[in-house]
Amino acid sequence: AYLKNHGRVHTGEKPFKCSVCGMQFSQSPHLKNHERIHSGERPYQCEVCEKTFARHSTLWNHRRIHTGEKPYRCNTCGSAFNQATHLKNHSKVHTGEKPH
């Protein structure tokens, strides 16, 4: 089953379709996560501040606010960030690319 699901990454097959907006996904868990956008379901809760999240991975990223963990480091200046997207945005300082 794993190889069949993974194979869809390469074939582009997306057999799982959102009944609300029509967006399609290669794996059913991805559809389930997406459907929470429409339902408002937020089953993952931070134990520290009780904020809730639709995705487990978002909760894990959020926890770094409380722990102070900053695993993403800029190779140019050494600045550290708690999320990969923050590092990506920061990198534009060095490349001269305009932030959006």
TrEMBL record:
GO molecular function (one): DNA-binding transcription factor activity, RNA polymerase II-specific
Compartment(s) where it occurs, according to its Swiss-Prot or TrEMBL record: Nucleus
SUPFAM superfamilies in the cross-refs: beta-beta-alpha zinc fingers (SSF57667)
Domain C2H2-type: 16-43, 44-71, 72-99
Main location: nucleus
Alphabetized SMART domains for the sequence: ZnF_C2H2
Pfam families: zf-C2H2 (PF00096)
Record's GO cellular component terms: nucleus
Highest taxon listed in the record's lineage: Eukaryota
InterPro entries: Znf_C2H2_sf (IPR036236), Znf_C2H2_type (IPR013087)
UniProt keywords, alphabetically: DNA-binding, Metal-binding, Nucleus, Repeat, Transcription, Transcription regulation, Zinc, Zinc-finger
Name this protein carries in UniProt: C2H2-type domain-containing protein
